[in-house]
Design goal:
The chain is α/β, with parallel strands linked by helices and about 350 residues long. The protein folds into two domains: about 220 residues, 3-Layer(aba) Sandwich (Rossmann fold); about 120 residues, Dehydroquinate synthase-like, alpha domain (Up-down Bundle), CATH 1.20.1090. The protein is about 40% helix and about 20% strand. The chain contains twelve helices and twelve strands. The strands form three sheets. It has an eight-stranded mixed sheet, with helices on both faces. Helix 8 packs across helix 11. It binds nicotinamide-adenine-dinucleotide (NAD) and zinc ion (ZN). Nicotinamide-adenine-dinucleotide binds next to helix 4, helix 5 and helix 6.
Length: about 350
């Protein structure tokens, strides 16, 4: 798999090209917020109100309208979507305006959906401020909100005009949320050896040139896959590695008898399960890597030890097909495939998984 090209410009900026019908560039660097220039006469900022004011202020100064959102996941509702649309309409923002998102993946999902739907679509610029928002949500064009019935049930594909990953914005991120992003970065390194991380990065590693390089490579993995499969008809399923069990654990952990798992924690567990399953399906065993990652991340405890219970959640997954559950598996480091797996195998893998994570 060839990652999308990364070209070095004036140090230390890197760019990743997303080669879709309307291509765009992801710029990775530091101090980008101050230099940012958006070539539209009317600009609105949609931002996470929980961000430090010092982060938001430089952008507020460059726009006519700033729309604050409730912090994090709580912004992803149809009500907040309608509120942001009305704020734009009240000021008669025209079709050739620009919307700029500043915040984590939740903010960019909401802001992207506002951009996709306002006047049937206006230009969208994304400035993710969380590591997960950078390596995952920033590329691919999926936008949307949640419903009481489930996550991400409403939305649209809407690609940004440009994405800016300013590493300086990560400095106010909590260690816990940073580690969540590391889970997706680690996943990209399993899917594509070009992005295999030489170590599990801590927040204190962010200023290093190595981190910038690895972040750009990680973004390039998603950019490459999305460029080849923009509408999730094939290869994009590889990005789902670890997410079948991961999503089930995440959902199950929201019940009152459990400790809520973050997405990244659930995915760290899910990746370990996926690699055990891959091995049982006749592929080499790489699960020592996912176990090492779990030991580093130290996620909260599993919400249940019952595979039967998790199966119910997996069957409800948005990505499950009517023809049955399919898993993304690893044939080799850097080589994924999607396959049906017998229930017996799934259960056997869960027993091994449970034994290794509770040992
Ligand atoms: N569109 C996609 O392709 C895609 C892919 C993956 C995830 N997502 C979505 O992204 C969301 C998860 O992303 P996330 O983890 O970034 O969630 P988030 O946006 O909820 O951010 C996590 C937390 O970090 C805080 N935060 C963000 N940046 C900060 C900063 N620089 N300083 C201090 N605090 C900061 C937020 O306020 C929030 O409390 C989910 O809604 C998920 O569905 C979308
Ligand atoms: Zn994920």
């Amino acid at each position: 798999m060839t990652p999308t090209q990364i070209t070095s410009q004036t140090n230390p900026v890197k760019t990743v090209e997303v080669t879709l019908e309307r291509p765009y560039t992801v710029t990775v660097g530091r101090g980008l917020l101050e230099q940012l220039e958006i070539p539209h006469s009317r600009r609105a900022l949609i931002y996470d109100s929980g961000l430090p004011e010092a982060l938001v202020a430089p952008l507020k100064a460059k726009v006519e309208l700033a729309i604050p959102l409730p912090s994090g996941e709580t912004c992803k509702t149809l009500e907040i979507h309608a509120y942001a649309l009305s704020e734009l309409a009240k000021l008669n923002f025209p079709r050739d305006c620009a919307l700029i998102s500043l915040g984590g993946g939740a903010t960019s999902d909401l802001a992207g959906y506002v951009a996709a739907s306002y006047l049937r679509g206006v230009d969208f610029y994304n400035i993710p401020t969380s590591l997960l928002g950078m390596v995952d949500a920033s590329v691919g064009g999926k936008t949307g909100v949640n419903l009481p019935e489930g996550k991400n049930l409403v939305g649209a594909f809407w690609q940004p005009r440009a994405v800016f990953l300013d590493l300086d914005t990560l400095s106010s991120l909590s260690e816990e949320v940073f580690k969540e992003g590391m889970a997706e970065m680690f996943k990209h390194g399993l899917i594509d050896v070009g992005a295999a991380i030489p170590k599990f990065y801590e927040k204190s590693d962010v200023p290093s040139p190595e981190f910038l390089e690895m972040l750009a490579r990680s973004v390039a993995v998603k950019a490459g896959i999305v460029s080849r499969d923009p509408f999730e008809q094939g290869e994009r399923a590889f990005l789902n590695l670890g997410h079948t069990l991961g999503h089930a654990l995440e959902s199950r952990s929201k019940k009152p008898d459990a400790v809520s798992l973050s997405h990244g924690e659930a995915i760290a567990y899910g990746l370990h399960y996926a690699l055990i399953l891959s091995h049982l399906e006749g592929n080499p065993d790489f699960s020592a890597q996912t176990l090492a990652f779990l030991k580093w991340m130290r996620p909260k405890p599993l919400p249940t030890h019952s595979f039967a219970e998790l199966l119910e959640y997996m069957a409800r997954d948005k990505k499950a097909l009517s023809s049955g559950l399919r898993f993304t598996l690893l044939r080799q480091l850097g080589e994924c495939y999607v396959s049906k797996v017998s229930l017996e195998r799934q259960t056997q893998a869960f027993d091994i998984f449970l034994h290794s994570v509770t040992a």
